[in-house]
Input
Amino acid sequence: MQPATRGADEEWFENESFWEDFYPVLFPDELFEQAQEEMEKIIDLIDHPVHSVLDLCCGPGRFAGLLAREGYQVTGVDKSPFLLKIAKREYADTGEIEWVLSDMREFVRQESYDLVLNLYTSFGYFKDPAEDLLVLKNIALSLRSGGSFVIEVMGKEVIAKDFEEFLTTKTEDGLFIQNHEILDNWNRIRSEWTLIRNGNIRSFTFEHSLYGASDLIRLCEMAGFTDIQAFGDFDGSPYDQGATLLIITGKKP
Output
């Protein structure tokens, strides 16, 4: 087995080997195929005109690229050079898009966007909640007055409802194994992923913060947002026992 190595001061998401090794299970083809429908539903959740969009933690650009092709002015921001390289390649024919290599704790464009997206559980990477609050404050700074944000995460309640400590999934050319451990009174989750492909074994361990709906709503209020709502899917269903995701929306006053 070859565990992905990281520097002493390197945070897990800064390790490019994680994104490279686990790209096939993180971003399978079906994830791109469903992006068009999800994008349309996201826009339907917003009750005001949208012209400019910031996709914060855009990854390989599955939403940013589609939005640009629909005519929106789009900025896609990610900290992974590997993922941005894929985004640039896949959407090279798209004009109204800017790709930016940056950390979401640092990226700010004052009052530049009508909508900010942070999707696919890209929120909660940091152990200190103050850094998650900083990200929300940066989003507020980058939004125009009256603009909205949409955050999608796997809510704490959703995970707790169907929690499985050990998961094994067959892939086209191997096996994907996940071990999960709940930490800090359900505030954090530690995951050990192992991918077996073509006789090669890659392993990576990382941690992520868990947010329930009330936790994330409170954090958004601290960042100055109003009209904050929680939904259980992209259709705008209630965040209740039937929820499959946690979608949080809100506005900058």
